[in-house]
Specification:
Length: 375
């Protein structure tokens, strides 16, 4: 396992993202604890020492579960990251103080190694400051309860400079991968954070799995160059080739993924010029599919008025754009929706989407596509 130094500690370059644990069959949030525990412990045994969870993950059960598993490991050898859910907070500082207290209980620890303001844009940063939540967490850092204080960024790249200037931060977590570098202007975000000498933690290196399910053409370009390399490993190596990246988070939910990632990071090898050129072509092909840029984070759920499983509808649609199997797509679509066209365009889900996807508009368009198929 590759490591980098940060604040006199060895941090594994591969971090375990705790948002995508294996789930109990039939549930969209209940953690399959036996499987997830085995993965966490195996990752630790193979050198992973950075574990990233958050208050809302898995219906607010992720922290408590992670705390129970990590308690069995030497505390000084692991790094725990968790986050203040700024966007969920309705009652200001008092609510945030209660959440922070509960997080220490959940994680069975008296300090957090990496603590983040969760999924914020400029508005979220202003809310953190005006509510006193930033000052409260800054005090916790001075007391040593938080070792490193940062934020995970979901906003306009042009705002990040101002956001960094609004506080004193130790790191920033960015959505970074070879597609978003241009699509979401992540290049600007990365360069701005780097200019401020703050290390970058990477989330969504494979875009919620989208960069592992590419078109056959894209896959054959990659396999022709290197038949042994997994498709995911290209994305991990791309992002690790950026010098200011400290940790790359991967939401590993099965053993094969974990083993593949461990191979990629032991040690991680920078991409050469030919490989970078290949990923430029793959990016071009990816953007041509015009898929919905959903990362399956579930922040938009539930869809209270129509009961739509939003990320799954986007997933089957994106798969259809790659495999062109209209029969399968229509069947899956109709099994997910009562009558097709269930979305009532209330747009309530859209505020929560960190990718700024126009969910209502996409739902309409997907419905038109499905219904126009003669199967
Ligand atoms: S806009 Fe559509 S998908 Fe979103 S919450 Fe409303 S009904 Fe559900
Ligand atoms: S639509 Fe947006 S909020 Fe919902 S799962 Fe996809 S990326 Fe996440």
């Amino acid at each position: 396992m590759d490591f980098k130094q940060h604040n006199n500690r060895n941090i594994s370059r591969l971090g375990f993202g705790c948002m995508r644990f294996p789930l109990v069959e039939g549930s969209d949030w209940k953690i399959d604890e036996e499987k997830a525990k085995a993965l966490l412990l195996d990752a630790y045994n193979k050198g992973v020492n950075y574990f990233d969870t958050a208050y809302p993950y898995h219906n607010r059960t992720s922290e408590e579960f992670v705390g129970r598993v990590l308690k069995t490991l030497p505390r000084e050898e692991i790094n725990i990251a968790t986050k203040m859910p700024i966007n969920m907070i309705k009652n200001g500082l008092i609510e945030a103080e209660g959440i922070f207290k509960q997080q220490l209980i959940n994680l069975q620890t008296d300090y957090i190694d990496y603590y983040l303001l969760h999924a914020i844009n400029l508005e979220g940063m202003k809310k953190s400051i005006e509510s006193g939540i930033y000052d409260f967490l800054d005090r916790k850092r001075k007391e040593g309860v938080i070792k490193n204080f940062g934020f995970s960024f979901h906003g306009y790249a042009t705002d990040i400079e101002e956001m960094i200037g609004m506080g004193d931060f130790d790191f920033v977590q960015l959505q970074l991968n070879y597609v978003d570098y241009s699509l979401q202007n992540a290049k600007l975000s990365y360069e701005t954070v780097t200019k401020h000498n703050l290390p970058v933690m990477v989330m969504e290196p494979v875009r919620g799995g989208a960069l592992t399910t590419l078109t056959p053409e894209a896959i054959s370009i990659m396999k022709n160059y290197n038949p042994d390399a997994s498709i995911a490993s290209w994305a991990f190596r791309w992002v690790s080739s950026l010098d200011n990246v400290l940790v790359v988070l991967s939401g590993m939910n099965d053993q094969a993924q974990l083993d593949d990632n461990i191979r990629t990071f032991s040690p991680v090898i920078k991409l050469n010029k030919d490989e970078i050129d290949i990923l430029d072509k793959v990016t071009h092909l990816f953007l041509q599919t015009k898929n919905v840029p959903c990362t399956k984070c579930h922040y938009c759920m539930p869809c209270a008025l129509a009961g739509i499983d939003i990320p799954t509808v986007f997933e089957i649609y994106n798969t259809y754009l790659i495999d062109h199997d209209g029969d399968k797509f229509k069947k899956e679509y109709l099994s997910l929706t009562k009558n097709g066209g269930d979305c009532v365009s209330c747009k309530r889900c859209m505020k929560a989407c960190p990718q700024s996807i126009n969910i209502a508009e996409n739902m309409k368009q997907i419905d038109r596509s499905a219904m126009s198929l003669n199967t």
